[in-house]
Amino acid sequence: WNAHFEGIVPTLKKKYEQTDSEFMRREIEEYMDDRPCGTCKGLRLKHESMTVTIRGLNIMDIGEMSIKDAFDWTKALQEGDPAADEADSSLYQFFKIPKIDPKEDDLSENERSIAKQVFKEILGRLTFLVSVGLNYLSLSRTARTLSGGESQRIRLASQIGTGLSGVLYVLDEPSIGLHQRDNDRLLKTLHRLRDLGNTVLVVEHDADTIRQADYVLDIGPGAGEHGGRVVFSGTPDQLIASGNTDTGAFLSGRRRIDLGEILEEIRSLKVRFVEERTDKTIKLTGVSHNNLKNVDVELPLGRFISITGVSGSGKSSLVNDVLSRVLAKEIHGSKSRPGPYKTIKGLEHIDKAIVIDQSPIGRTPRSNPATYTGLFAEIRNMFAMTQEAKIRGYKPGRFSFNVKGGRCENCEGDGLIRIEMQFLPDVYVTCEVCKGKRYNRDTLQIDYKGKNIAEVLEMTVEEGWNFFQNLPALANKLKTLLDVGLGYIRLGQSATTLSGGEAQRMKLSAELSRRSTGRSFYILDEPSTGLHFEDVRKLLVVLHSLVAQGNTVLVIEHNLDIIKNSEWVVDMGPEGGEAGGRVIAVGTVSDVAATKGSYTGEWLLKLMETEKAWPARKPSKEHWPAIAPATTAPRAAGLVAALSKPSDAAKAKGGKAVPEVFQRKAEDADEPETRRRGRPRKSVRV
Predict the structure, then answer these.
(1) Are 93 and 141 in contact (CB under 8 A)?
(2) How far is Cα 534 from Cα 221, in angstroms, rounded to an integer?
(3) Which residue in 80, 88, 334, 480 could disulfide with 509, CB within 3.0 to 4.6 Å?
(4) How far is Cα of residue 625 from the mean position of the Cα atoms in its chain?
(5) Spatial distance between the Cα atoms of 427 and 567, rounded to a whole number of angstroms
(6) How many CB atoms lie within 10 A of CB 558?
(7) Residue 393, by phi and psi: left (phi above 0), alpha (psi -120 to 50) or beta?
(8) Which of 101-110, 286-295, 671-680 is most confident?
(9) Using CB atoms within 10 A of its CB, is residue 180 exposed (0-12), middle (13-18) or buried (19+)?
(10) The whole model's pTM is what?
(11) Separation of alpha carbons 297 and 570, rounded Å
């Protein structure tokens, strides 16, 4: 009774550092927050170091600039241009040290001459970063906050500066996170590397990248066990002319992602459609986080919404740092702190907010798709119910590799042995006792339909779905993984080997296996990452099925196929960094395409003209079927033709057909909108 209690904070900190449980880490992180250091105010350097200035700015002030602003500042300093009105120095902002006149703190001509080579090196490196579309990043941005695509392009920029030739460069989807305009810049950079005498090998799904390649290898025809073969090799023109591959079919336009076909497939799945779509909205005002300029955004609920814009325009700041955190705090009582905003209205129309990001589903080899989706518990129960397991007295815990008993104790159920390398990343080697199977010999002697638990975990999702057809609890969860395009991954595959896009779709499948309320708000950040055209189509089927049930799906996206098939688009810009942070266009896809100054609109217009499925100019109201509410995005003619015949009201007015699930009664066609909005919503099984 006289034991010393070290305190709650030290106890939580110790447990956080020592635990291997991802669940426990997430629970403790709920009580943690990042805050600037009280002494240096988050500037990292001590006071004396920050008093060294040029034109009134110290090294940390330059680090806080965007890459483009740093380039302009350095160029002006090199050429001796008059000092512009500089931003307040951090010394004045945080420590109230008197401002220094930039003109009195400039370099002399002699100092400029001495720094000539330094200027050349700095400007060269900044130029490379701009050329790969990273002009919006600040120099002081921490590496852990960068996306995979941004990290890869930074490494690419460092290689461009070497000027080497005869080098083989291998890039894995460098277009991740890039707007089509920025992707053009990246492609010019890759061409420059090629022209220097290098070979550039790119793993990519982006259509523009494939079209501008000199040579294409298409791997397939399917994923997992159905792939692994070269189905085409040749030039892009030959690929487009070939009728043997899905890639060529999509590039040529013989196949396309059409909203009508998507909803027709959803209807065949017997999804419950909401007939009367809500006219409710959620409105966020006065958002001034990071580079956002006091932005006001109103989003219609029960729709598929895309947030678009060039890289660094403020999409993630608006959605991830403000909107998602406000929803989590107000609806679920989360302790996360949103960025600065004034008001939010419409929360009473949402009962659940679900953020599906690309963070890993686990950071240890023990985490895998089976454990994350809840399949593993069902599989262990199944093995425990076999006759041999009952005779031996094995319980479900015997088949867990997280506790002692049935697991291999040499590797403690990891299947791998971690070897710590000094000054290098840890190396994992296969356990020599269990040969990577994770279990001891006695446990592996228990089988179900001729397969032991290690062999079941080695199955792909598709193989598992076929194997467990007679067990609905397992088959249904596996079907959701198939629906999001993950049929090729293995049930026991280590979470550390999954890409960000795969982890995000894993989380989406877990949400799909839960019952939908019809008032949920889903937020996804670039769900198309790592997806082929056909996989994007499958993803859209899943997301639109959620919308058809009355839910709201909001995605941050650059993929034109997803944007084109959205019901509502908010385009941010016009540029990245400080030149962005504004809403440039908002409305339907055609509205955005018709907006001057919108880069997204320009590319959508090109796509529309290519497919000839959308008008190249802003349509008048009679071009689109009347779907409540008045702000709801229109459906393309392909959708209408695919789902229904023209209604009597539409025929009478000479308009286009309206899908049955969204049609109003003919007698309501001329009824004032204010009267129609007050009606209760209905549901109908289609």
Answers:
(1) no
(2) 11
(3) 480
(4) 32
(5) 47
(6) 27
(7) left
(8) 286-295
(9) buried
(10) 0.77
(11) 8
